[in-house]
């Protein structure tokens, strides 16, 4: 096992171009996120959506192709919020406000007005690349396209957003925001970039 320092040193030697110090270069470089989209109503997706609605205070639309999964996820959200109220971590009005920021849909078209979207579906490469190809067409041209993966190449996922390898308008907005499980409890978020990821995308992801 390598220590953190040893891993950092090794990465600098083996792949210096990939080594970046992830800090926001300027608060002004980070775009404001007014609405979030989350793809996947499972434990990870629901956790991300709930934390964003509660902590960031932004409206969140949860998209899943199964209404049953959405219904199950929303019941879980209600359970977590009720638990926080019972333990006096938040007030009932705070819980109601958080719940009110969560909406759901079985259509990807519901992501047409988001500023940031996080995909949290199973670790199936073809599924993820298919989703990101759709996101590049559906989401606004400024939207950050994030994945929750930590095992699939972000460069590969980013490449699926454009058929023209010279057009980086969509690939440059792809990044990984890898949340730890369970999201409402774990504070860590791992930021992973692809070769195409722009600095403004990194800045916005870190600030959000």
From TrEMBL:
Could you say which residues form the signal peptide?
none
Q: Which residues form a coiled coil?
A: none
Q: Which InterPro entries match?
A: 3-OHacyl-CoA_DH_NAD-bd (IPR006176), NAD(P)-bd_dom_sf (IPR036291)
Stretches assigned to the 3-hydroxyacyl-CoA dehydrogenase NAD binding domain: 35-208
The protein in question is named 3-hydroxyacyl-CoA dehydrogenase NAD binding domain-containing protein
Record the organism.
Answer: Cryomyces antarcticus
């Amino acid at each position: 096992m390598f220590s953190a320092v040893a891993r950092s040193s090794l990465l600098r030697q083996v792949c210096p171009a990939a080594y970046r110090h992830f800090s926001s270069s300027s608060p002004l470089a980070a775009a404001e996120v007014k609405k979030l989209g989350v793809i996947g109503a499972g434990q990870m997706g629901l956790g991300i959506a709930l934390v964003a609605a509660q902590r960031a205070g932004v409206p969140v639309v949860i998209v899943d192709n199964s209404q049953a999964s959405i219904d199950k996820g929303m019941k879980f959200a209600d359970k977590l919020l009720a638990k926080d109220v019972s333990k006096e971590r938040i007030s009932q009005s705070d819980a109601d406000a958080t719940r009110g920021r969560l909406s759901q849909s079985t259509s990807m078209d519901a992501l047409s007005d988001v500023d940031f979207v996080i995909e949290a579906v199973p670790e199936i490469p073809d599924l993820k690349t298919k989703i990101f190809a759709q996101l590049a067409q559906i989401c606004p041209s400024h939207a950050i396209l994030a994945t929750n993966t930590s095992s699939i190449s972000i460069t590969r996922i980013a490449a699926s957003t454009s058929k023209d390898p010279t057009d980086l308008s969509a690939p440059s907005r792809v990044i990984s925001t890898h949340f730890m499980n369970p999201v409402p409890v774990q504070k860590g978020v791992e930021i992973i970039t692809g070769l195409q990821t722009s600095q403004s995308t990194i800045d916005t992801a870190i600030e959000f």
